[in-house]
């Protein structure tokens, strides 16, 4: 048995001269030595265990992605309580790993903490579906992620630190747009899906990303090696195992999660005799939460919720999938820079230059890459969507390309498009977005679609 690999990093020495002969702190001792903090001194390790050493013999259980049973697939272990057992790169709740580190550094969270999972199991059972055991249908989440307490009971009893990557719960929603739809008679209070106080009953699931790297590479048509190398470089070397541990094929990336809101019976999803309505929605904090009028995100989201509720009330099932891909996955800072560039350009904000302004700032028009989006639908067992509440050709192509049939595509009603958002809407329609109401503007007509000035 090879010895455990670690580097004996003297933390006190870290403040001393570095190998270039200088001093990391400019020769000045810190006023407060964080490593000797009385609150945390006892808990702190004096060495760092490297999990990336290629020659160390690890005890990590193997992962057989797409195996027929959870027990054959094996648990995914991305925790640090026993680094030798890790069989995945990254960590659970990857997007929050830095907050977790801060909590530990500040002494608020014990490094050895393990969650008590009593009573946390899903409120409804989703799957297993045939897509769960197809190594190519699902590559960006762990289909067994909600059920680890059941399917890895034995391993948990043995002391393995396995954590859920999916949680399923129930909630009531109160939304002004749904209230208006009830008042206008478009939705009815049925006591089941909409309660007498206008609460909407929903089942919701949160899914953290779990990437099977060979499958991800295949989706994007690149080699696994190229994918690993680029991710290693672009995360500033944050995950050395991408390079040093080619045997680790699963990664929990530090990106946002996905949430599903289901209206009606979750068990009806996938049934051939039930009508399915679905909106796949990418996060837009400015519109979704604050009602900013430069885009159609919230109106389209609430329209999708209304259509989903209506389908459920008519005996079908509706669901909205919400992906954390703020500003086309470019981030909100880039998005706001683009807003300024659009509004300040010569001639003002125009539908004809909408995409160019994004590309000038971001280098690309869009980084959402809908290739991974249908995985959540396959996790739900969706085979057909009768009403797809989306105009995006990229979303449609990804869904249909993944083997899910789409019936009708539902355009956002014109009256729901805010005036300032017509720039975005007309630009997208001209670029190939689905539209069956009204003409698609081109050339001069597209140029004439103008947005508000920055100071109006
Ligand atoms: Zn938006």
Which helices and strands appear, and what pairs or packs with what?
Layout: E1 6-7, E2 48-49, H1 70-73, E3 89-90, H2 97-105, H3 148-151, H4 153-157, E4 166-173, H5 176-183, E5 200-207, E6 211-212, H6 213-220, H7 224-234, H8 241-244, E7 250-252, E8 258-263, E9 276-282, H9 285-288, H10 297-313, E10 317-323, H11 326-329, H12 332-344, H13 354-362, H14 374-380, E11 384-388, H15 393-401, E12 405-409, H16 422-430, H17 443-447
Parallel strand pairs: 3-7, 9-10, 9-11, 11-12
Antiparallel strand pairs: 1-2, 4-5, 5-8, 6-7, 8-10
Bound molecules: zinc ion.
Keywords:
binds zinc ion, seven-stranded mixed β-sheet, single chain, globular, 456 residues, 17 helices, alpha/beta, disordered N terminus
Tell me the structural class. Answer: alpha/beta
Shape: globular
Kindly report how far apart the N and C termini lie: 71 Å
User: Which small-molecule species are bound to the chains here?
Assistant: zinc ion
| Assembly classification | single chain
**Tally of individual helices:** 17
**Spatial strand arrangement across the major sheet:** 4-5-8-10-9-11-12
Query: How many strand elements?
Result: 12
Order of helices and strands: EEHEHHHEHEEHHHEEEHHEHHHHEHEHH
Q: Helical residue percent?
A: 25-40%
| Percent of residues in β-strands | 5-15%
């Amino acid at each position: 048995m090879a010895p455990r690999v670690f580097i004996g990093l003297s933390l006190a020495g870290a403040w001393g001269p570095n190998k270039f002969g200088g001093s990391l702190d400019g020769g000045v001792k810190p006023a407060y030595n964080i490593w000797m903090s009385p609150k945390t001194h006892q808990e702190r390790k004096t060495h760092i265990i490297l999990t990336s050493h290629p020659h160390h013999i690890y005890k990590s259980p193997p992962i057989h992605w797409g195996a027929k049973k959870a027990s054959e697939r094996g648990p995914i272990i991305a925790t640090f309580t026993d680094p030798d057992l890790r069989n995945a790169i990254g960590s659970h709740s990857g997007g929050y790993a830095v907050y977790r580190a801060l909590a530990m550094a500040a002494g608020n969270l014990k490094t050895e903490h393990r969650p008590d999972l009593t009573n946390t199991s899903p409120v409804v059972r989703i799957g297993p579906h045939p897509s769960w055991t197809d190594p190519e249908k699902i590559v960006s989440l762990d289909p067994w992620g909600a059920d680890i307490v059941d399917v890895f009971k034995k391993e948990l009893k043995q002391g393995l630190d396995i954590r859920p990557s999916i949680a399923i719960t129930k909630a009531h929603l109160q939304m002004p747009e749904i209230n208006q739809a009830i008042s206008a008679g478009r939705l009815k209070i049925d006591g089941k899906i909409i309660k007498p106080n206008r609460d909407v009953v929903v089942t919701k699931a949160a899914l953290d990303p779990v990437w099977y790297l060979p499958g991800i590479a295949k989706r994007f048509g690149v080699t696994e090696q190229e994918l690993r190398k680029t991710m290693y470089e672009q995360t500033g070397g944050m995950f050395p195992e991408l390079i040093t541990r080619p045997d680790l094929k699963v990664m929990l990336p530090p990106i946002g999660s996905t949430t599903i809101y289901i209206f009606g019976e979750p068990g009806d999803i996938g049934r051939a005799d039930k009508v399915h309505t679905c909106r796949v929605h990418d996060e837009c904090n400015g519109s979704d939460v604050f009602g900013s009028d430069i885009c159609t995100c919230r109106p389209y989201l609430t329209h999708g919720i209304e259509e989903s509720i209506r389908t459920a009330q008519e005996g079908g099932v509706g669901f909205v999938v919400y992906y954390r891909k703020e500003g086309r996955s470019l981030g909100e800072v880039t998005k706001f820079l683009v807003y300024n560039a659009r509004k300040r350009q010569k001639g003002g904000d125009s539908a004809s230059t909408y995409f160019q302004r994004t590309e000038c700032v971001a280098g690309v028009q869009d980084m959402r890459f809908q290739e991974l989006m249908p995985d959540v639908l396959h996790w739900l067992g969706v085979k057909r969507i009768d009403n797809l509440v989306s105009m995006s050709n990229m979303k449609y192509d990804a869904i249909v390309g993944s083997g899910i049939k789409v019936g009708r595509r539902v355009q956002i009603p014109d009256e729901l498009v805010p005036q300032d958002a017509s720039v975005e809407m007309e630009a997208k329609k001209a670029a190939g977005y689905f539209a069956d109401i009204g003409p698609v503007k081109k050339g001069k007509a597209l140029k004439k679609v103008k947005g508000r000035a920055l100071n109006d």
